[in-house]
């Protein structure tokens, strides 16, 4: 049975707020994604067979897995039918935006942000003031979408100054309608963290939970660490989201089913500026996490730690596995983790070679590392100017098995 969804404190009524804000109304959006009474929405049920990795969604489009990857044929079938340029989603704001780009992908859906970056007022410095932008959730294969309304002002007015924030797709739950979804926004305010949740069922944003720095057990030190954290670099494992901080021993945890925030201390983090990632194999042990850390010199460490948070002492490694990555490249960059895989990008050997003016850009290789088996596979290649530091791995059953998810 699905875990109960926490009660949200919602803002203004969805219809009245959307009318005032000028965003698309729930009715107009639903016309592109709704089901007719004759065909009621299906319920989502867990399958014993997980969907395969089909490729990587990035800023400039979709790169399907290529041969000899086991999903290459299915990935090509998806790429031929899906639209990862998101042309089926209308630009927001109209006549000012020039498209969309992906922020997160999960359960076949893609969370996208408008390619519209207005001039921002800064706080007296060179860093723009953070602000919520225009977002949508879409199904690239069936070309369905939902435009997200802005977070209502009455939900944010009492929270103080916004420092930074990040959005992600919540994991699906059993017995939910297969086209329903939730979007999570974790907002870092000056005095606390606030978690907003958008539900496709209500078409409203609400506050799911919040925590002060003191209640998280970190105080001023934790606050300063999270202020500098990349909120887009998150990892989802078994219904929880994890954010790691480079060169620090803290891992922020959001249980997306219970809507609870906590902090895990981990004493064995690398301190050379690399960022660890959180992963688990698809048949992972309950209560256990795998922390993946690139150590340099083509060495990758997988450490098993306990999942529980402990404000007092750091969680010790329960096991460790050092994997020597192939010598295809001098170094690798960790991009993220999803569905039991860690994703990496090779660093071309001539990255620092500026002596040859006739040098032609080389392709950059992207890889996956299976947490359970240690298998290292090439996923795809991109032109050298596509050296992304984050990607959205796209897992889905390919046509004709795929079903609409928005």
Mean pLDDT across the residues is 78
Oligomer: single chain
The largest sheet, given as strand count, sense and whether it forms a barrel, is: 5 strands, antiparallel
Task: Say how many strands there are.
Answer: 24
How many distinct helices? Answer: 5
Order of helices and strands: EHHEEHEEEEHEEEEHEEEEEEEEEEEEE
Q: What is the CA–CA distance across the termini?
A: 22 Å
By helix and strand content, what is the structural category?
Answer: mainly beta
Low-confidence stretches: 1-42
Protein name: F-box protein AT5G49610-like beta-propeller domain-containing protein
Organism: Urochloa decumbens
Region (Disordered): 1-52
InterPro entries: AT5G49610-like_b-prop
Report on the structure:
This protein is about 10% helix and about 35% strand. It is mainly β and about 400 residues long. Strand 6 and strand 7 form a beta hairpin.
Structure keywords:
mainly beta, single chain, 4-stranded antiparallel beta sheet, 5-stranded antiparallel beta sheet, 5 helices, 406 residues, disordered N terminus
């Amino acid at each position: 049975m699905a875990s109960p969804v926490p009660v949200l404190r919602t803002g203004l009524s969805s219809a009245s707020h959307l009318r005032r804000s000028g965003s698309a109304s729930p009715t107009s959006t639903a016309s592109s994604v709704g089901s007719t009474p004759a065909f009621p929405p299906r319920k989502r049920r867990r399958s014993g067979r997980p969907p395969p990795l089909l490729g990587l969604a990035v800023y400039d489009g979709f790169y399907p897995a290529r041969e000899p990857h086991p999903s290459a044929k299915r990935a090509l079938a998806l790429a031929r039918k899906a639209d990862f340029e998101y042309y089926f989603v209308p630009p927001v704001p109209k006549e000012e935006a020039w498209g969309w780009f992906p922020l997160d992908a999960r359960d076949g859906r893609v969370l996208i942000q408008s390619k519209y970056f207005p001039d921002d007022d800064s706080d007296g410095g060179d860093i723009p003031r953070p602000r919520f932008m225009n977002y949508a959730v879409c199904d690239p294969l069936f070309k369905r979408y939902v435009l997200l309304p802005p977070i209502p002002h009455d939900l944010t007015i009492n929270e103080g100054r916004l420092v930074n924030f990040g959005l992600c797709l919540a994991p699906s739950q059993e017995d939910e309608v297969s086209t329903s979804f939730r979007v999570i926004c974790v907002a870092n305010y000056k005095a606390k963290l606030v978690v907003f949740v958008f539900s496709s069922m209500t078409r409203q944003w609400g506050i799911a939970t919040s925590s002060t720095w003191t209640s998280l057990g970190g105080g001023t030190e934790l606050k300063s660490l999270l202020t500098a954290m990349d909120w887009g670099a998150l990892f989802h494992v078994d219904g929880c989201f994890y954010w790691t901080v480079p060169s620090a021993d803290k891992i922020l945890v959001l249980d997306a089913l219970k809507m609870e925030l906590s902090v895990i201390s981990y004493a064995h983090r690398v301190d050379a500026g690399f960022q660890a990632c959180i992963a688990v194999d698809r048949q992972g042990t309950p209560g256990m996490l795998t922390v993946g850390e690139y150590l340099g010199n083509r060495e990758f460490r997988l450490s098993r730690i306990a999942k529980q948070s402990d404000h007092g002492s750091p969680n010790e490694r329960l096991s460790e596995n050092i994997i020597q990555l192939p010598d295809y490249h001098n170094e690798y960059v960790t991009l993220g983790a999803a569905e039991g895989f860690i994703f990496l990008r090779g660093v071309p050997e001539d990255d620092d070679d500026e002596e040859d003016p006739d040098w032609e850009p080389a392709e950059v290789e992207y890889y996956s590392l299976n947490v359970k088996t240690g298998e290292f596979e090439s996923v795809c290649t991109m032109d050298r100017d596509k050296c992304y530091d984050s990607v959205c791995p796209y897992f889905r059953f390919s046509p004709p098995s795929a079903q609409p998810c928005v």
